[in-house]
């Protein structure tokens, strides 16, 4: 690597070196001692004054005017030098009687800037041609060292950062590497599959640090052991040809988001087997479903799950009990006689979406269920690398709600009575069973009256009404798990002398909706 230097020399003042040293030795009360700072930066200089009274500051023997910020307390005076550009200057602190209390020499440096490198090709030889600018005193002899780093290698649990000087460096130099991470995936404490940004800076021995290099971003590799496939399968009943549909399901562990891996399903096991997406057709014999996850065309991680043969003698759980409590389902069962290592519980509310979890115990709790849905729950024992036969529990609702909604409420009014009938939505899953119905009715001025009937009755005749009067009526369905109220209906009882029969049938036809009102 060759480097081309372009120097920009600034005109800086020459130091009155001899006079300075005498002054410095004179006082020890000014800190920091002889700082070396970057040109244009700021620094606070502290003067400790044990003498009472005012003090003042001089810069290169000239008194500093009042525009410079100074903070004073009983024992210290702090001068803030902002945007300091002198290449070197002597700062002194004086007591009111012009006695020098102390001093310090502030020197500044500039760093090379605007560095750029381009790859050049001269007759088959590739070179980096680097240029930079440096504003500095022409009298200084400066050796430049260009360090270049090739390379940040990322594996799953560490980064390797390498750099090289362009040519043999005489002096020792030190470097710092800074890195920060942006988690893509956080798997417990493992830092695999994460984006890191890395930058390096160096300095020769006691010299100031170079600027940070440009940041390089690397992605650490995903550690195979961080990926758990959590594979399971669901075997349907065999059809007339003894072919069973096996649905394979897997989930990369929940903490792992974003899985840009090609997923391959293969059903292999000395039987001819066809798999379409995650569904495989298998015959009555035992099978093993293999899941292979490929990353960049190479096998990354794999797992397999057993599908028993029809009629195979295998352990099976019995006596599954289910109950619900505040939206979770508690499941327990009796262990098979044979020793097993654990149980897989799978559950679904629609036959398309399955959840599954493993336990060592003979009970489990199912969380994160959809509200008021009927769940089919299956328990399968696990042992060695096989599974036993599955046992399905009676369907159970995640929770049971109100009775079903009313579909309509009809009223046929006479002079002194009204016939009210109603119906509710038939047998929706997870609806509370109606215990009884209460019919509430009143005139506009009240009072509200009620009649209760049991769940086998869906009509009632309201008696002792006043003729030619407007009434309102609604019905409440009462279940142990809640109540449902019908919409309110208004009706008017007949005047004496009206023919009720034909009018009520006309009114029924005119009736636009359940919410409408009977008008005569
Ligand atoms: C005065 O200021 C100096 C420098 O900021 C500080 O170290 C010191 O503690 C201060 N003294 C008092 C008494 O506040
Ligand atoms: C600069 O380089 C020359 C030639 O390699 C060497 O003799 C000299 O000691 C170097 N100076 C510093 C300050 O490193
Ligand atoms: C992957 O993680 C495991 C467990 O944390 C660790 O023992 C192993 O060294 C890691 N592998 C690599 C390549 O980092
Ligand atoms: C639940 O199980 C019953 C009884 O085996 C079955 O008829 C029904 O189709 C199942 N429903 C779902 C959604 O799997
Ligand atoms: C399983 O049953 C045991 C004993 O009855 C109980 O302590 C435990 O909490 C239950 N576990 C679950 C997940 O329900
Ligand atoms: C039904 O009416 C009776 C008598 O007026 C009253 O005591 C009772 O509270 C009412 N029931 C309801 C559910 O409002």
From TrEMBL:
Where does the record place the Fibronectin type-III domain?
111-223, 402-496
Q: Which InterPro entries match?
A: ECM_Regulatory_Proteins, FN3_dom, FN3_sf, Ig-like_dom_sf, Ig-like_fold
Keywords attached to this entry: Immunoglobulin domain, Repeat
Known Pfam families for this protein?
A: fn3 (PF00041)
Q: What Gene3D superfamilies does this protein map onto?
A: Immunoglobulins (2.60.40.10)
Q: Which domain of life is it from?
A: Eukaryota
**Name the record gives this protein:** Fibronectin type-III domain-containing protein
The gene designation is LOC127368488
